[in-house]
From TrEMBL:
GO terms for molecular function: glucose-6-phosphate isomerase activity; iron ion binding. One of its GO terms (biological process) is gluconeogenesis. It is found in: Cytoplasm. GO terms for cellular component: cytoplasm. The keyword Repeat does not apply. CDD domains: cupin_PGI. Belongs to the archaeal-type GPI family. Its EC number is 5.3.1.9. Pathway: Carbohydrate degradation; glycolysis; D-glyceraldehyde 3-phosphate and glycerone phosphate from D-glucose: step 2/4. This is Glucose-6-phosphate isomerase. It catalyses: alpha-D-glucose 6-phosphate = beta-D-fructose 6-phosphate.
Length: 189
C-alpha cells in the first residue's frame, strides 16, 4: 500500500490565499451571458474587472478523496445584480459539498434540476451543506471581498452547462439599498 502524505496549510484569513494552491482567476469577460442586464454587462466589460479568484488544492479524481478551495469573490454589481460565481452542478451529480464563510458578507443560491431555489445567507463562521444534486452559486452582497472555504469530493467535477444556458430561477439584486432575492425574468424551465 502506498500512502499519501497528510498536509496542513494555513489559509490567510484576510486575503483567502492558500499557500501552494493552484490559483484560478475569473474576470467579467469569462461570465458572458450570465448576468441579466446585458447593457450593464457590456459597459462594465470595458474595465473587465476580476470577479473572483479560487485557490484550490486538488487531488486526482478518485472516489473517496477530498479537494478543498478558497474563493475570493469581489464586491460589485452588473446592473442591480451582485457579483457571483458561475455556479455548477457536480458532474457526478450525487456528490455533496461543504462551504464555510471566512470573511465578508454574501450567500449561496442553490437549485434543484426542477428549478426549486433556496437562498442561504453566509457570514464568517457560517457552514453551508450542499446536498447531492443541487446546483450552487455564491453571491457577494457586501462591499468587501467575500471569502469562503469549500470542501468537496475529488471526483465530484464541475458541470456548468445547464446553469450557463438557463441560469438560476432566482436573482440576487440590490433594490433601494436592500438585498432582494427575486424571480429571474429570463429563467427558462
Ligand atoms: O466553479 P464556479 O461555479 O465558478 O465556483 C468557483 C469555485 O467555488 C468554490 O471554491 C468551489 O469549491 C469550487 O469547486 C468552484 O470552482
Ligand atoms: Fe461544487
Amino acid at each position: 500500500m502506498e500512502y499519501k502524505n497528510p498536509l496542513g496549510v494555513d489559509i490567510d484569513l484576510e486575503t483567502g490565499v492558500i499557500p501552494g494552491a493552484k490559483k484560478l482567476v475569473r474576470r467579467l469577460g469569462d461570465l458572458k451571458g450570465y448576468f441579466v442586464d446585458e447593457k450593464a454587462y457590456e459597459e462594465l466589460l470595458k474595465e473587465n474587472p476580476v470577479v473572483y479568484e479560487v485557490y484550490a488544492i486538488e487531488q486526482e479524481e478518485k472516489d473517496g478523496d477530498l479537494n478543498f478551495a478558497t474563493t475570493v469573490l469581489y464586491p460589485g454589481k452588473v446592473g442591480k445584480e451582485f457579483f457571483f460565481t458561475k455556479g455548477h452542478y457536480h458532474s457526478k451529480a450525487d456528490r455533496a459539498e461543504i462551504y464555510y464563510g471566512i470573511k465578508g458578507k454574501g450567500g449561496m443560491l442553490l437549485q434543484t434540476p426542477e428549478g426549486k431555489a433556496e437562498w442561504i445567507e453566509m457570514r464568517p463562521g457560517t457552514v453551508v451543506y450542499v446536498p447531492p444534486y443541487w446546483a450552487h452559486r455564491t453571491v457577494n452582497t457586501g462591499d468587501e471581498p467575500f471569502i469562503f472555504l469549500a470542501i468537496y469530493p475529488a471526483d465530484a467535477g464541475h458541470d456548468y452547462g445547464s446553469i450557463k444556458e438557463k441560469g438560476f430561477s432566482k436573482l440576487v439584486i440590490e433594490e433601494n439599498g436592500e438585498v432582494r432575492v427575486v424571480d429571474n425574468p429570463k429563467w427558462k424551465e
